[in-house]
Structure formats: structure tokens, C-alpha cells
Give the backbone structure.
Amino acid sequence: LLVDAGATYELAKQAYEKMSEIKKLPVKTVFLTHEHDDHWLGASFYKEKFDAKIIGSSSINKNYTKDSKTRMFKMLPKDAIKNTKIVRVEHEIKEATSIKVDDMEVQIIPVGKKAHTSDDLFVYIPSNKTLFSSDLVMNGRITSNRNGSVIGQLKAVEMMEKMDYKNLIPGHGHDTSKNAINETKQYFTLLKQRVLEAVEEEVGSAEVTKHIKMEEFKDKALYEELNSRNVFDAYNELEFYEEE
């Protein structure tokens, strides 16, 4: 089984070749965690090679057709995107679901509200206590919250922390330990706190990115590219927020 398939057919093919150096196994089940195309366009490789069953977020079927030109099609050169096709999710996950893959139980759990995107899933394997967070957790870099929610991200963190896991596989990052979630938790906790303080101090949306720098994260990858946008979007989300 595979959690997320990568950005293109060719990338998925290369990834499978590397996996096969460990053990050459068919990929019969692919879980797709959310609609950002760098995580699921590679499913076309696994569908073609193994006729893999595609399970995952309903937002992929909702927002894309076989003729859609997604972000990867627009950004990547032709040789990188060649052979890539949009394949449908055959089993949409809309509630917490347990699936058997051979003798292994796999739990697929929707966040249930906008978090990293409008419709995020995480995957948990009880037998080896491994949690696949996808982009609900990143470490070593700043997350992109362009389609997300600060409140939803914190809910997702809370949900995942309740799982009995010892390994956490993030959507981006190299830390796969029990502590892999900490950076994301800290980022969104501080972002929420500081934006609400800025609202209370009547800092306007035009000034908020100058007011809130999130300097604890300035040495992380993509800080310059993404942090200011995250602050601005968080302000728009939280300007009239009342604690539940």
C-alpha cells in the first residue's frame, strides 16, 4: 500500500524503482490524502502498472476532471509531466474508515473541517503504530496555508496527538519520530495567538505582516516565500473569530 503518489507519473515511477531496491512488491492500494496535485498525480503510474485501487479525498473528484490542467501541468516542463493523467478516486472517504490490506488494518481518518485543504485525511496503521499525516504536518520548512485554516490545522494536530503512534510520516520533512508534529503545532499555535493579539491591538490587515514575523521560524526553508502570506491569510480568518 502507498500513502500519496507524488506529483507526476515519472516521479512515481522513479519512486517505485527506489522502493523496489528494498523489496519488489506490487502496489495494489493507494491512499490520497488531499487535493494538492503534488500528492496525487503520480497515481496514474500505479493505476497503469498495477491497476491499484485508489482511495482518498472526495475533493479530488469534485474539483478535477480527466481534462483538468492542474498546477503541476502548468508549472513543469513537458518531459517532467509526460504520461501523467488524472485518475479518479474510486473509494471516497467521508468518515473514519477501517480497511484491511492483506492482513493489515489501515485506518483512514478525515479531519472533518478545513485544515490544510478543504478535505484532508490522515492514515494510521495500528500494528506498527505509524501515522501518515501528509501535509497536516511538515517540518524543516514553512507550511503553505493557502487553502487552509489555522483553526482546522490545530484541530488536526489535536486529533493526531490522540492516536497511539510512535512514528509520524510528515507530508514534507525528514523528522519521522514521535516529535515530528511539534514544529507544526508550535507554528500554528503561535500564529493564532499573535494574530488574535494583533486584532485586539487594532493592527490592520495592511500592516499585519510587518507586525507578525514568526521569527522563530526564519531559518526554515520557504520562510521568505510563504510566511507573510500565511500571516495575512490567518488575519483574514481570525479577524472576527470567537473561541468555540
